Structures are given as C-alpha cells and as structure tokens.
Amino acid sequence: MFELTVKDEFAAAHYLRDYPGACERLHGHNWKVEIAVRGEKLNEIDVLIDFKDLKKHLKEVLDELDHQNLNEHPAFQDKNPSSENIARYIFEKLAPKLKPYGVELIRVTVCETERACASFVKA
Ligand SMILES: Nc1nc2c(c(=O)[nH]1)N=C([C@H](O)[C@H](O)COP(=O)(O)OP(=O)(O)OP(=O)(O)O)CN2
Ligand SMILES: [Zn+2]
C-alpha cells in the first residue's frame, strides 16, 4: 500500500459563534492544508497518482474558500467554520474527485497555525 500527501494553503476570515473568547470576533488565518491518499496499484509510469493531479484538485476545492468570509459560505450557515468542520468540508468535496484515479482520500489536515491543526479522517 502506498500513501501520498500534498499540501496547499488558503487565506480566509471566520469567527466561531458562541466561542467564549476573542475567536468569536471576525479574524483571519492562513490555513495550511495537507491531504493524504492511499492506494495499491501504481500506473504504467509507476506512480500512484500524479502529484500534479492531486494538487490541481485540492486547489479547485480551496479556491472556493480562499479570500472568503467562511461564515458567509453556504457550507457554514448552520455550523461553525472551525478547523474541524473545514477539514470535513474539504474531505467531502475532494473525495469524489479522486475516486476516478483509483486512490482513496484518507485524511485532510487543516492547520490554523503551526501549533494548531485538525484532521478529518476516513472512518
Ligand atoms: N478545536 C478547535 N479549537 C479552536 C478552533 C478550532 O477551529 N478548533 N479555532 C479557534 C479560533 O479560530 C482561534 O482563531 C484560534 O485560537 P488560538 O489557537 O488560541 O490562536 P492564537 O493565534 O491565539 O494562537 P496561540 O497559539 O494561542 O498564540 C480557537 N480554538
Ligand atoms: Zn480562528
């Protein structure tokens, strides 16, 4: 079994409704995102999936979040745009895009800072 990861980032504003502190006020982060896929079969040039394709599809998903107020995004109308929910949103958008390549998305990790990250992992 092989596992690949690629990274990208996006910048956005958010606030956490009902948060007991400063994060209840609008503020921004440069979120760093890492995704991991796995699969068994290498293709005819001996790669699982081209990093370029992985990065392209991740970017498509992140472009929808980049430079947005995430609290105004349809995905976060009834739930907070926490790192946890952002990771799950990216996972759910990205997983179907990668299926045709024969790889499985297994983890999306979203970091608000170098010291604070949340992952959504395949059950
Ligand atoms: N589990 C989570 N906890 C928090 C989240 C989150 O998404 N998931 N988000 C926040 C806020 O977004 C806040 O902006 C981040 O707070 P904090 O980590 O305290 O950020 P600081 O810049 O103050 O970092 P320090 O390391 O404390 O300097 C809060 N919690
Ligand atoms: Zn925040």
Account of the 3D structure:
There is one protein chain. By secondary structure, this protein is of the alpha+beta class. The chain has a single domain (29-121), classed as 6-pyruvoyl tetrahydropterin synthase/QueD (Tetrahydropterin Synthase, Chain A, 2-Layer Sandwich). The protein contains two helices and four strands, in the order ββααββ. The chain has helices at residues 51-63, 83-98, and strands at 2-14, 27-39, 104-113, 116-121. The chain has a four-stranded antiparallel beta sheet, covered by helices on one side. A hairpin with a 2-residue loop joins strand 3 and strand 4 (116-121). Helix 1 (51-63) packs across helix 2 (83-98). The longest helix is centred in the last third of the chain and has 16 residues, at 83-98. The model has no long low-confidence stretch (mean pLDDT 97). The structure holds ligand LPXRUNBV and zinc ion. Zinc ion (ZN) is lined by residues 14, 23, 27, 29, 112. Residues 14, 23, 27, 29, 112 line the site of zinc ion.
